[in-house]
Structures
1.
Amino acid sequence: MPDDKKMSDAVSSASSDKTRDQYETYPYPARNPEDEDKRLISGSPGNWDEVVHFVFGGRDPSAQTKSGKIKILVAGGGTGDALVMLAQQARDRKAKAEIVYIDLSESSRAIAEARIKRRNLEKNVTFVTGSFVDLASKYGPFDYIDCCGVLHHLPDPDAGLRALADALKPNGGMGLMVYGELGRTGVYHMQEMMERLNAEAGGARRLNFGKALFNSLPGTNWLKRNPFVGDHINGGDAGFYDLLLHQQDRAYRVDEVFDFAEQAGLRIQNFIEPMRYDPTTYCSRHDVLDRAMHVPFRERAALAELMAGNITKHTFYVVKAKNKVQPPQPSPDAIPFFTRLDGPSLARSVAKTGNIKITFTGLSVTRTLPAASPAILSRIDGKRSIAEIYQTFDPKPEKYEFNAQFAVMYSVLCAANILYLHLPSKK
Ligand SMILES: C[S@@+](CC[C@H](N)C(=O)[O-])C[C@H]1O[C@@H](n2cnc3c(N)ncnc32)[C@H](O)[C@@H]1O
């Protein structure tokens, strides 16, 4: 093979010019750096507490590295949502984090840099313009890599994920998001229509043509009937373009996500929210569940995706296949804490109904919690261990009964991404 052919293959597997041009013109998501004064955008993957839970077994990651620092890569960081969240959450937790941001798009980087400056977080962040497929190893190895909504835009996503895996430390892990096929029904119909109509190649002309086409579609069109995607309606021009007009874009079914991780030597710890990938969330018939539940995790998750129909993206955490780390389980010294809910108000609402209602992309699921849940929930402060929470009861419940109720309550709330456990660092 001539050298110039090898060269162009290398460039095309790393990124496509159309992708870079799109994000130069429409940095995604649209963000105004001044809004950093008002709010912190947080989400998955990359929420610090989730990362500690799924990647580091519930123990402080900086205490697990020789340098006392955790090294993070935000690959395809866009306008900076994950970067800003991780940098701010690390500071809030007094964790030492060194973060590298890599993106193809200069204009996205400018917004991400301005957001970081606005929060005075620039000291520990390095900004790089280019493809992480080529550059990740040069700046690594990393303890944690965040790559959200990016790999499905690469000409060769498998090679992209292998490049990230090569830049990961043996005990590190990644938070990833790739599109889900079923929940995006209609999106690829729109992309195909654009293709068949020989639509403009890029920029404002492509956007205007795409909007004209979308506005002409009848109510029977699958995209018009899909209530689970909304970026084309709520996300401004950047959102419309990103959802419907992308020219390098694919989606995954659960089986493909497992294959994707495995070919890169990675193991899936879990999806977010874990409950969405569990058939019992959707079905209570024993005759069906008898067959659905006695199969490997991959099969259960694939079935759950088919049952739900509303999974628009797969958010998941991976570690190296050989890494045996598991998320923490309840034990006397584990410290429970809420990830994104206000504990006292959850305790009050569970006390009234005995239930918790969780809504995932248009589907509400109600779960009954054990009787002691309100009393336990009201005592969770992110500082007390489970053993200490038990000690605050007067009179004390039977210990076996308390632990059993805690375990059932925890399994529901953890699967809903509401309650996690923190373990003290190993001495
Ligand atoms: C949909 S945006 C997602 C941005 C961000 N991760 C988020 O979730 O908000 C995709 C980003 O990936 C970047 N990107 C695509 N391919 C890349 C590559 N090979 N190397 C670096 N960045 C890339 C694009 O420039 C764009 O900013």
2.
Amino acid sequence: MRAKILYMTKTGHSRKIAKELASRLGIEAFDAKQSPDLQDTDLVIVIGGIYGGVSNPDLVKFIRSMDTPTFRKAALITSCASRKFFQKEVRAALVERGIDVFAEELVVWGSFLFYGWGHPNASDFDAGATFVEKVMKLS
Ligand SMILES: Cc1cc2nc3c(=O)[nH]c(=O)nc-3n(C[C@H](O)[C@H](O)[C@H](O)COP(=O)(O)O)c2cc1C
């Protein structure tokens, strides 16, 4: 199972998670804003935050405008201060592109103002690594 990580970030948390998981798992991580190379992969782990209750609209736009995706599967890791939101709009955009999105979505703590201070931290990275390993095994 060939896997890559795709992230988009506004305040750096998704990048932090992506880089840490890439280093722990020995896979590549790409910023969606920097012409990511998503060729030669079966599975893409998409990491992003929540802003005003919704997914990053630029990440949704990126997914809608990607050249015909060659990968068939994706899984979502969501970073948000309340841990109550999912990247629903990102999931819908992936499904629209014919990509099979893993039903389970990992939601880890982000931080905003006083909420979730100190996150993402080692426990978030541990949860992320366990999730990616599970998705890779099941894909
Ligand atoms: C402008 C703004 C709005 C946010 N709105 C929400 C929100 O509605 N719900 C929530 O749980 N977290 C919210 N957050 C927290 C972010 O989702 C969280 O910090 C996440 O880790 C950000 O990811 P990023 O650093 O990769 O951009 C907001 C953060 C910012 C900066």
